[in-house]
Amino acid sequence: MLVRMIENLKIYLTGACVAVMPALAGADTPLGTWLTPPDAKGIVAHIEARPCGAAACGVIARTFDGQGRRVETPNLGVRVFWDMTPAGTGVWKGHAFVPAHNRTYKGTMQVRGDRMTVKGCLGPVCQSQVWARVN
Prior knowledge:
By secondary structure, the protein is of the alpha+beta class. It contains one helix and eight strands.
């Protein structure tokens, strides 16, 4: 009985993921690889955004110095956004982590073509960046 319930749950979850994927992969999606602006040390990052359930999540996949050479930083692999769900045309809302602040914020992302404005707010104070799509 338990085995049958687990198999049914697997089938249901697979179907749910398949149903959600077209919405995540549509126009104005944050899915893909994004280039951040340079930080205070001149380091830029590639953020890889992928589906995670019905939401989108992103991690720092690669980092580069000002000359475009790959560099190792402690932030490689750090999750910088998660639980981002569609909240209107090209707008996604969820949570964002800013490594420079070592804090988590309520976050939004607005995708317009090959640009995405990423914004995090703590109360009335907000900061944003514009990322460029790499692929």
